[in-house]
Write a structure and sequence with these properties.
Strand content: under 5%
Order of helices and strands: HHHHHHHHHHHH
Structural class: mainly alpha
Number of helices: 12
Radius of gyration: 19 Å
Largest sheet: none
Shape: elongated
Number of domains: 1
Distance between the termini: 55 Å
Helix content: over 70%
Number of strands: 0
């Protein structure tokens, strides 16, 4: 049967289908496992941040929001330690190819040089932004930042970010979900603009 133009118009777009699939994942029994895996890998090599899954959990199961934020923070810090280890001992074989894959070499050099002046403050600042966190963790290992200071800074900045996200979407979940359902693409493109802005800041530092 041939699809009518009206049916094609009503068919959800790819990003909307991904959004709906993420909500279904957040409601399933593997939600926390997926959140932990993404949180861990994003801090060292994976390109996708855990925020969409965390938001989906807060929207679909608000009573799990704070627990999800804690789990997200713990796994992100563990992933940050992996990023630190890559920068400290495996930069030439693993860290450098990761930085080059995302075309962040110039920003990476700037961040590494900034550690001598700003220390842990640069982690606190950048961990709250859309700037790839893996860049900061690998650079910290290369710069041989004090491991305890690094761990505490990561825990603080990741915790602030994830608990803020979880609280916002838990508190305003019904309104937020209604807005997402009605204005999905406006919200999507707005969020994408923020993400692109974060990457633009990185490249301006070259």
């Amino acid at each position: 049967m041939t699809e009518t133009p009206a049916a094609a118009t009503l068919r959800p777009g790819l990003m909307r289908r991904l959004y709906d699939a993420t909500l279904r994942l957040a409601e399933g029994r593997h939600a926390m496992r997926a959140l932990g895996g993404i949180s861990f890998t994003e801090a060292s090599f994976f390109p996708v941040p855990p925020d969409p899954v965390l938001i989906a959990i807060a929207l679909s199961t608000p009573h799990k929001a704070m627990r999800a934020a804690l789990w997200c923070t713990v796994m992100s810090v563990l992933g940050a330690l992996l990023g630190y280890a890559i920068g400290s001992g495996l930069y030439e074989w693993v860290g450098k190819p990761i930085i080059e894959l995302y075309k962040l070499q110039g920003a990476f050099d700037t961040f590494r040089a900034g550690f001598s002046e700003y220390g842990a403050w640069i982690i606190l600042a950048k961990g709250l932004t859309p700037i790839p966190f893996k860049l900061v963790t690998i650079a910290s290992g290369v710069a041989e930042m004090n491991l305890l200071v690094f761990t505490l800074a990561c825990a603080l900045t990741r915790g602030l970010r994830f608990f803020a996200v979880a609280w916002l979407f838990k508190t305003f979940g019904p309104q937020a979900r209604a807005i997402m359902d009605r204005h999905f693409y406006k919200v999507f493109w707005g969020g994408l603009a923020v993400l692109v802005g974060g990457f633009a800041v990185v490249f301006l530092l070259k």
